[in-house]
Amino acid sequence: MQILSAVEDVRQQVTHWKGQEESIAFVPTMGDLHAGHLALITEARKFQRVVVSIFVNPLQFGEGEDYQNYPRSDRADREKLAACKVDLLYCPTVEALYPDGTHNCTHIEIPVLGNQLCGKSRPGHFSGVATVVCKLLNIIQPDVAIFGEKDYQQLLVIRKLVADLNIPVKIEGVPTVREKDGLAMSSRNRYLSEEERKLAPRLYRILFDLAETLSQSSGGIAAMKPCITEAAGLLTSNGFAVDYLEVRREQDLGMPQPEDRYLRLFVAAWLGKARLIDNLPILRQNVA
Description:
The chain is of the alpha/beta class. It has helices spanning 7-19, 35-44, 74-83, 94-97, 118-121, 125-140, 152-164, 194-199, 201-214, 221-237; strands at 2-4, 24-29, 49-54, 88-90, 144-148, 170-174, 241-249, 262-271, 274-283. The longest helix is centred in the last third of the chain and has 17 residues, at 221-237.
């Protein structure tokens, strides 16, 4: 596995592969790799070459968030990637990606999609995500880039980015990987205390039950509100501080209309120091 940090070196290698007409899959990460990341790499292995990046992007962290304390495990990450037969690991520095500093660089804004749900709770977050992903896609120029559905809003933001800026790459999503008890895998699960870790799976169970209930619903968002409010109360009584619990149209995060069949349920909730997010698809049975 090659490990590169300079833009020029990465481009030289990618140009060589492209000259041999080899397909390239790209998996961007912030490191501290777990089974969820490895599932993305497994999907990427369907292509001839696999590039993974590890970069904790300061641009997507707000003031008072956990940029400095975000889990980092460089040595273990490299061992996992080598075992997965990754061809190239790209590890840029902050100075390499933002030579003029994060406050004096071009920012990309994704209106509407990027300003709700997590975007509302974390102003500027998706601008930071869109900016760094755009830079990485331009540097690596892959045929396909692979993201997890656990961050489903992020997946839609990146698809919008690629479509609007005519970036010639296919964006693929991979289903959320979960622990045996249902908790969505996340590097931030490390923030949970032993007692909080025992409570954390209740988030998924309550979300799952709500999704099942809403799959039998009809009508628009007003008809669903009582069930959502009840579930939010259940989360609170189980020790979660709910940031949001909302159902949206799956393809664009619009508010559900009576005729919408494909929906998605989103939750963000604090448990101690950990902000947990999750989502589940809803296929409404009573909508043609």
